[in-house]
Amino acid sequence: MSERERIDFAGKTFEVYDLSQVLSNDTSAFEPNPHSIAYTTHAESAAKEPFGVPAGTWPDGEAWSIESVTLTTHSGTHVDAPYHYSSRTSAGAPARTIEGLPFSWVMGDAFLLEMMDVDPAAGITAADVRRELGRIGYEPKQNDIALIRTDISERFGEPGYETLHPGMRRDATAFLVEHGVRLIGIDAWGLDRPMRFMVADIEAGDPDQLWESHKYGAEHEYAQIEKLRDLASLPRPHGFQVLALPVAVEGAGAGWARVVALVEVIAD
Known about the structure:
The protein is built from 6 helices and 11 strands. By secondary structure, the chain is an alpha+beta fold. It has 2 domains: 4-22 and 73-264, 3-Layer(bba) Sandwich (Glucose Oxidase, domain 1); 36-70, no CATH class. A 7-stranded mixed beta barrel has the order 5-9-8-7-6-10-11. Strand 7 (145-149), helix 4 and strand 8 form a beta-alpha-beta unit. Helix 3 (126-136) crosses helix 4 (170-178). The two termini are 25 Å apart.
């Protein structure tokens, strides 16, 4: 289950669902882009006598903890900006980097599409999206946030995790973006199909499908959340909000994010 906390905010009461993976040394070995965290304890900091302060001066012999992290902007739960997909838009303008994303893209009303039964090799199509929207009785609107549930987050940390999910095909991504969605999140390693399926299709004579959902973002800019978790914990398919605020890394194609869903608690 996702961590959950009830808070009072802006005159309302919400259940807050944490949809973000925890960045840990335990999750590094299986990642194609590995990361590492080095921990300096309070006592180790004091022993270095920072700013010339003798170690014995610190209360209990403890100064501050420090963590040194080596990682990419795609480590852990993160938001991809259009610059990740292409240096320029199809119109020739510079693509947006992560610090330039509008707040209206990364915070707002959200809806959840269940795609657990889709064949990973075939990928999620526009027909799948339309079917699921019909099932939940929802019509996307401008600046909605779409969450794609695959439940592959339950296998986060397994070797080969990045090869398991059903990714979005171009027509599925286009359908959402053309209906106003500017942020699409998935509880898997990436939004496109796993690379093994794209490579197989290239070898079969179809290079056009390579990274097709990402590359669609060069034509119609949108952003992605990758490596979400616990979408199964959300209590309803729409009628909630998502906050996915990325760290503003200058000129970068992605930024780490603590992504949460806010579900309003209605008094009986």
